[in-house]
Please model this.
Amino acid sequence: MTGEAVDRRDLTTPERESSTVAPTSRLHRPPLPEGMSRNAWKRDQKKQKWLEQKDARNKYKKEKKKQKKIEKMERQSSQPDRSDDETNEKMEGNIVGAGSADVVKRGRNDMAVRAPITILIDCGFDDLMTEKENLSLSSQITRCYSENRRAVVPVNMRITSFNGRLLERFDSALKQQYKHWKGISFSPTEYEVPESDEERSQIIYLSSDSDETLTVLEDNKVYIVGGIVDKGRYKSLCLNKANSQKIKTAKLPISEFIKISGRKVLTTNHVVEIMLKWIEFRDWKTAFELVIPPRKQEGFESARQKRKRQSSLQKEDSRSDAEDEHDDETSTEVVDEGCS
Model:
């Protein structure tokens, strides 16, 4: 190695020099408002920034929504158009099937076939119900409409004697929404009873007190369901009304397919739902099991009843154990006396 010897300890590299420099002072932070913590100040700054960018965000959302709409229109225009015959056919309601069935539009694209069956809810019992029962009936009618609208095979639905407190509730609390319902008709008067026996034979009033049992739902017939909530106060009410009008009556075949605890009287909406399920599955057992609440089925045990039963069993076991211990003590005393 040529040249003078160099003491490496005397050399100072730039890196070494920088390491010896005192650390720079921290960046200057703006003073905090009086009485505000730094975290609160940060939250306030974020909020102000969010508000400043609000207009830009709204503008971006509008542009994005507009772009999606344009893309959707382009996709629809690229699809092949339907033939005029097919469009006219759907508008006229022509379908494959018998009777007076028609096509029901469901949503935007889904189409459902309406069964040639009419379910009529007779609401001519307004004066026999309390205010609370009248409220329950309005909820049941709403449920009937909702279930029929969602049904795989909906039916024609009519509401008669739509007046009094029931109409008042639909007009006030329910904000007249029923006026926009489709596939259902409302009449303030009672249903008309035909004079001829042949026309009356097409009407069946459903009543749990009837001696006749309904086996199938037939096309082109009207099935009347009593629109009343009475908690069992009025016995054979619908049956007597139908008999006075010389209308056939029938009851659902509940006993043949399912066991119900208590009276075999169902709510208005449950009767309608069961009929809709039968039309869909053509099976009463399936319809009953899908609609009737478990609490009404025989053998159902609520959580409270289960706890009560388990508590009783535990008490019986404890009592039995105590009796066994007492018997053991008695037998021991007898043996000791015999040995002496």
The chain has twelve helices and eight strands. The beta strands are 102-106, 110-114, 118-122, 156-160, 184-186, 203-206, 222-226, 248-250.
